[in-house]
Hints:
Layout: E1 22-29, E2 39-46, E3 51-56, E4 65-70, E5 79-87, E6 90-99, E7 106-113, E8 126-129, E9 132-135, E10 144-145, E11 218-223, E12 226-232, E13 236-237, E14 249-250, E15 270-275, E16 278-284, E17 288-289, E18 301-302, E19 321-324, E20 331-335, E21 340-341, E22 353-354, E23 375-376, E24 383-384, E25 390-391, E26 403-404, E27 425-426, E28 429-430
Amino acid sequence: MKRIAIIGLACLAAACSGDLTELLVVVDSDLAVPSELDAVQVTVSGVVESMSASGAITNAEPLPRTVGVVHRGGGLGPVEVTVIGSRGGTEVIRARAVTWFVRGRTLVLPIFLSQECTGVTCPAGRTCSGGACVSASVDPATLAVWNGTVPRLDGGEPMDGAPPPDGGMDAGPTCTPSAEQCNGADDDCDGDADEDFDLDVDPLNCGGCGDVCMLAGATEGCASGICTIASCDTDRGDCNGDERDGCEANLASSALHCGACDDACDPANATGTCVDGACELDSCDAGFEDCNGDESDGCETPLTTLTDCGACGVMCTVTGGSPTCATGTCAIETCDDATFGDCNTDASDGCETALNTLTDCGTCGSVCSISGRPETCATGTCLVECSAGRGDCDGSRGNGCETNTQTSDSHCGMCGNACDPADDCTNGVCS
Length: 431
């Protein structure tokens, strides 16, 4: 049987009445006294003025021991109670609880120093239970109202005739049953602790007491002590297959998972936006348009065709030539009559310019101009206009009409008309 004494903050019998707003902290342990535990310190902080009590533990005083914390006004919580058990000045075990006052009630707050938690260090807001760190938060609705006796947390019996320390309270003759909680203690005094909880399947205590499964966007389950997804919330999906982050994808707005996992909102030739789980066109890429009004195939129509030139349904046709819309603007690719050209780059009036003039000779803008010499472009090539009997037969406009076509055996009568070797050119005739 273990004995414990806490000096300084023991609840007085007169103070622990049902009319007070009070917490009655009950400290118990299954560690051997004094071989494993010879001192305990209780510290209370929060909405109450910080206070601390400590005392040596001997085997002459029965468990449990109590500390009364009375509310003196202001907020009702939170109140944090930390209990440190030590031996020879070295900390052996630590437990904590965070709860709230209930106005007009004296609630019993049990804190059990379990041997399973020896040497276990838990971060702020957590405490050890069953050898594992769990939430230190205690719902005051689960705490028993003090009825004049203090229960044994481990279901044991106090030592007969062992008086409580000054200001303390006797443990009472028997364990007082209360609703079983997942806290490492035998709350219902049946000799078993936490027997009503299956840590393998309970999502509120999954793998350990107080280990609540909290998965984003999901209804949580628990399998083999590991949090799992029972179902995803509406418009949520577990698209990465990792249950640890829950149903992480928002199917209502995700561009990668729009309406369903892996259904990307990536319309053809366009930028899309996922709205309420449906992919909507935001804008078309340059040179494309949604001409059929069906957003499911994106901006399906290129605007560089003869039927959709620059805009949906705009035809590209020309007069006197072959049309093209390669740049998104209707233009003439070739003219049907090679002696005409589209010199104003306006497809609407076709091939409007003759290419056998001195200003547009052969091509648009090619000007025939030799100072002091008459010219012609009747054939689409700039030529010097020669008098009768003369010809520009060497093609060099610079030396004028250098050939006498009346006598030249090579150019008899006209440029390029050569006489047979046995003939001569006389008066422009081979004879």
